[in-house]
Every structure is written in C-alpha cells, then in structure tokens.
Amino acid sequence: MSIVASITEISAVGATIGVLVAAIYYIITLRHNTRAREMEICRLVVSDYISEQAIERWATMMNMQWKDDKDFLETYGQSNTEMFGVWASWFFAWEMMGILLKNKVVKAEEMHDMGGYSAIFAWEKFKDIIQGLRNSTWGKDAFSNAEFFAQEMLKIKMKKEPSFKDMLVAYKAYNMTLKPSGR
Fold first, then answer.
1. 50 phi and psi angles, rounded to 5 deg
2. pLDDT of 183 above 50
3. How much is the pTM?
C-alpha cells in the first residue's frame, strides 16, 4: 500500500468522523432548540394563568350562576361584554391549548403541571351551555379544542391522582344543586 493510498484512507475516515460528529451535534442542537421552543410556548400560553387578573377572572367565572341557557345568555352573553369576556377568554385560551396539544407542539403533562387542570371543573360547569351554543348559533365545533384540552387534563389528573374521581363526582353533584330541577 502506498503512502498516497494511506493518506486517502485516513482522509476519508477523518471526513466520515467529521460528518458523524456534525450530525450528532446537529441532532443535539435540534433537540435542545425544540425543547427550548416548547418551553417558551408553554410559558407564553400559561402566562395568562399566573396573573392576578387571570385568577380573579377564573374565580368570577367559577362563581357564575344561572337558571337556564336563556338566563345565562342574558346575564353572561355577548350583550354583557365584561362578563362575556370573563368566561369566554378562558375558553378561547383552552381552545388554543387544545390546538397546541393536537398538533403536538406542547406536552399534555407539562400543560397540566402548569395549571391546565383548571379547565376540568370549568368544562364541567359550562359544558351544557357550550353544547347549547353549538346547537343554536356557534356551530358544532365551538370550543371543541377546549373540550379536548379539558378531557386530556382530566386523563392526566386521574392518572396522577386516582382519588380525583371522587372530587369530580362531588363537584358535579354540587353543581347540580345550583341548577334548577329538570336540567
């Protein structure tokens, strides 16, 4: 074997190692950037959860009471922009989170751990209203991604805390006492 052939082989091995190292570096960088992007999206999405105003809006929403769909729309519908904004802003946020989950931009477990579980009780409280809106004016897919998000949060909550089922049953029973009979 000649020196030129040996140098050529060493050069080819060196080039192969260089390409391999570059590919590994690219994969590591890509994974890091993907993870950083995911965390930034999560941070931006949940930034609404952590403000004092957001917590006040959530508490106001969860304390809303109505007799029937008509009463709800008169009291909290679009004609009352302030109260409409209180509950609708949360459902639009959960709608966006559902879209992000469906498209696998964020992980459900991370959204749950960042407060996404708040959608569970809200969905239980408002699902009849939203179903009524789907059947009347907003279309069958109204807040469908928010519903998906709440269901995903419920799955995670039940997996992490099996006793949560009892709390949810108690909440549903309590919520029924707030509604007029026949509903």
1. -100, 0
2. no
3. 0.75
